Amino acid sequence: MAISVAECDAIIDACKKAGVKLSVGYRMQSDPYTKEVKKYVAEKTFGDVHFVSSHAGYISRGNPDQWRLNKNLSGGGALMNMGVYSIQTSIYGCGANPSSVSAQEFSTRPDYFKDTDETITAQFEFPNDAVAHMMTSHNANGNWLKSHCSNGWFELDPAHSYGPISGRTSNENVISFPHQRQQALQMDDFAKHILMGTPNVAPGEMGKRDMIIVEAIYRSIAEGGKKQMLDLGNMGIVG
Asked: The domain at 5-229 falls in which architecture?
């Protein structure tokens, strides 16, 4: 949504003052596979979620002067780009906002990733006693979500590419929906919100929540992996 929580607040406030709707470009929130995962969690199809693992990354081999590798332009590296997918899947794969996060940063190509983070891992704790591990990278491929529950598991692999997505469960069911353009579904959802007052599936507050987590991850890394407590319970945004 932005490169800082302060910018998120400025955007949200500007839209409120102008009396216009605001939605973040989170295409996966409109995808049927995401909705199916949320349904499993909400209905406890496989029991209580205990552990979630999520990966989001790709190998960057492009121009070393590209804007994504310039912190002044991008705000950060893999975490600011692909990391939001891992944050989101960790949250809706568990069904709650995290209460804390600890993080680590790794680099194997410091000559290329001079200004931005290459690979980050982070661990979340949730108020429902679940835990999650996420990985994001600009130098490793990752496209996966798996939730381990008290009575089984479910996974998406791939989990957040442009499609087709694929999934399966511990009871040997295949999670499958007809492929649709995610951006079209996203725009349809926002149009319905504007025209018919349906729920906003990706409000500005969701983008702000994710930036609060991003900043906490960077802060944890700067403090040697120290656990950062998160106060997200008053935001009213889960999923």
From this structure: 2-Layer Sandwich (3.30)
CA distance 51 to 36: 18
Give the C-alpha separation, 159 to 157, whole Å: 5
Provide the b/e sequence for 211-220 (b: ≥16 CB within 10 Å): bbbbebbbeb
Spatial neighbors of 92 by CB under 8 A, at least 6 apart, are 34, 37, 38, 41, 238, 239
Phi-psi region of 129 (alpha: psi -120 to 50; beta: other; left: phi over 0): left
- Which residues pair with residue 169 across a beta bridge? 154
pLDDT at 236: 74
The SS3 assignment for 81 reads helix
Residue 237 has pLDDT above 90, yes or no: no
127-182 residue pLDDT tens: 999 999 999 999 999 999 999 999 999 999 999 999 899 999 999 999 999 999 99
Rounded CA separation 222/78 (Å): 16
